Structure formats: C-alpha cells, structure tokens
Amino acid sequence: MTIRIPILAALGGILIVTSALTDSLSASDHTPKSSEPEFDKLDRFMQVFTAPPTIAQEALTYLESHWSTNDVPMAIEGSRFIRSRDMLFKWFDVLEKKTRKSYSDNWSAWSSWIWQQPTKLPDNYAEFKSRLYRRIDPRFAKYFDGNPAHTIRLDEIVWGGVVQDGIPPLRSPKMISAKDADYLEDSNVIFGLEVNGDVRAYPKRILAWHEMFVDTVGGVPVAGVYCTLCGSMILYETETQGTNHAIGTSGFLYRSNKLMYDRKTNSLWSTLEGTPVVGSLFGKDIYLPRRSVVTTTWGEWKKRYPESKVLSLDTGHTRDYGEGVAYRDYFATDKLMFPVPGEDKRLANKAEIVGILLPDTQQILENSYTPLAVDSAYLNKHPLYHSESNGVPFIIVTDKSGANRIYERNAKQTFKSWDGKNTLKDASGKTWRLTEAKLTSSDGKALKRLPGHRAFWFGWKAAFPDTKLVSLK
Fold this sequence. Notes:
A hairpin with a 5-residue loop joins strand 23 (392-398) and strand 24. Helix 3 (53-65) packs parallel to helix 5. By secondary structure, the chain is of the alpha+beta class. It starts with 9 loop residues before the first strand and ends with a strand. The chain contains 14 helices and 31 strands. It is elongated, with a radius of gyration of 24 Å.
C-alpha cells in the first residue's frame, strides 16, 4: 500500500513537520515511566510512535498482545507520527486485525470511522495527548495537562500542523482609509463590520494568512476569527464577566473547525460558539458575545461606506497577500484537508451557508437550541427571506453581491420589496432604511441586526449535527 498519512500540513504558509517529535526525544523518553499497567501501556504507545525501530518493534509486540478496544483512538491518532514506513505497515496491519476494519493507510478514513463510534476513551488520554504534542510545541501540553474538563471528545481534537499562534493573529493592526487602499480591486472579498459608528473592512486575502485579528473597534475589545478550513468569519467581543480574554490560535482543530485558546488559562475555545470547551474555563457559563459581520466585495462596501477604514498591507509579516493566493488549492476543490465524522451530501462540502445561532445567549450555554443553516444559493433566489429560529423571528436581506444581513422582526411583520441598496418596504407600505446596525422605519422604529455568518456546509454540519437546513433541494 502507498503511505498517505498527512504528517504535515500547510496552514497559513507555515510548515511544521512531525520529525520534531522524534528529533527532540531523549533516551529517557523510551523508558517506561511507571509500573502501573495503564501508564506502562501509554509508554509503549509512545515508543511505537517515536522510538527507534528496535524499541518500537518491542512496543508493538507488547501492545498487540495486551490490546484493548479502548486503545483504538490512541492508535489512530498516533499513527500520523510514525516515521518508519516498515513500522507504519505493521501498525496498520495490527489495527485492521483488531478492529476488523480495512481503511489501509488512510488516517482520515480511520479517524472519521472511530469518531462515529460511541468509544470510551482511556482515562489517561489527556496525558497521552500532552506527551505526544509537547514535543512539537511545549505550550501544547498546557491544553491537556491534569486531565482537564471537556465537552468535546479529546480524540477529535486534531493537530492542525502549526505551533501555537503559528498562524500569527494580527493584534491592533494598522488601518488605512478607503481612498488609500489602492491595492484592492472592486471584486476582492472583504469582511465588513461596524461597531458604534466605527466602520472597517478586512480583506479575505490578508486574513486568510492570519485567521484572526484582535483590536478595539468602536471602543469595544473584539476579535475577528476567520477559520479558512470551515469558511467562517465571526466577530466576537472578547470581554465578558469583567474579563477581557486574550485569545489566539491554538494550533488544533475540532471537526476541521479551528480551536482558539486564551493566554491566561490555556483553555480551548470553540470558534463557532465562542465558549470554552476544554480546560479550567469550561462549565463556568462563559460566552463571548458575537457581533455582526458581512461578507461582501470591496466595490460594494466602498460604495456604501466611502469613509471606511481598511486593513493595511503593512501587517508586520511577509506574505503574498494577492487575491486568492492563500489556500488556493484548498478552495479550488470540494476535498477536505482534515477529517470529520461524516459528510452530509445534501450540499457540496464547501457550499456556503449562512449559519444562525439564535438566541445567542443562555440557550447556547445550556445547549438548548437548534442551529439553522440557510444555503446561500437559496438566499440569492430569495433576497428577502422571512423565518424564525428558536422562537426568534428574523429576515435575511441579500444584495446583488451575495452579501447577507440578518435583522430581527415582529412575528407578523413581512417585507415586500427592497431596492438592493438601502431601502425596504414592508407589507403596510412603510419604508425602512438598512444600515449595518439596524433597520430603521420612517416613523422611527428600529429592528436590530442579528449575528450570523457564512460558513462551509461541511464544517457547520460537523459542528452542529442536528442543524436545520434550508436549501434549493
């Protein structure tokens, strides 16, 4: 068979190869550290994945004769880091024999399969991950040390191929005026936002290399989190319960969605929900409030907001910020870079949807809500889309550029037309003006903007298996 294990990944143009695991090992790393059977077995796994061939073979023989069903997730995760082709063949032979499954050398297929099984992980799985990944980046150990509380399966937390903040966030990045942003073409994709009158545009061509900016916009501490793999851009307020969380890019993924971390506690956070999912902050009712953001073109945004600020090319980093350069190959196909538990073929993997989590407060903390995904192709054909989610009535307004904006509405209120720019009319003939913050009627009433964002269908469905879907099919 041909070895196809993805032992490295190119994220943000930075490569980290797994030879870091073996090159940094000392002799003591190949010696069992405990006489307790559970931890002796963990030592044996580490030897298979990182030790020289003779020691690795002895460990493989031991594990084959002391195999447990609970060993399978550890065996699959660690297989990415076996450098010897001969050992890799032998390891998968054992795995196929013990599971009676045949996925050859396809680590993604093995992962997808095991994540769909109700597997009980060994009690020392967190210790396994800490020991495995700290050799790549010592800071990784802090995510898993002490068997932290968690709400997601630890074996589904996958290394993305970079060190902590290896895809460097832009912190307080330089902004320029719209008239000075001559590097942008009208067709370029930007993420537009407005906070307390502070209007800004963040080009996708820059954020694809950095995946996050952290700044104060309109007097509010925020983080714009762009997950290139799952296609989502979300704007979070970073201050909650009196604490401003200094977040960054963890280097790990959950179901192909990036995981954030906070510098103070090294807890891991869900990018799509804005809540801690692993670590000391989990279970403390912490939720980052989300703000509205729109995906549109520079030409459309510039017409609406000629005084907008724009992210400068002067980021302090050297990258090719040309349109479509970052992740060109990934965006060009429907193939995935990392595994998910399963693919829902109602839409193409990377079909764009508008993801909606309403209401976005206590129900998210209690996990007592149903997410909603609306196919962007459907919205292009229905530019005024009325619906409700978890008891919250809303309207999605879609312009000719494909930009989607979500606003609250009264349950019996409908809109009949809009000019594709700034003006809507409701069923009673009343005129409403569209802004980033709200819809305002001619008699002074207001309907606030609601958070929602674009995402790739596969990433949204993987994170929210019970999501509702509205589509053309």
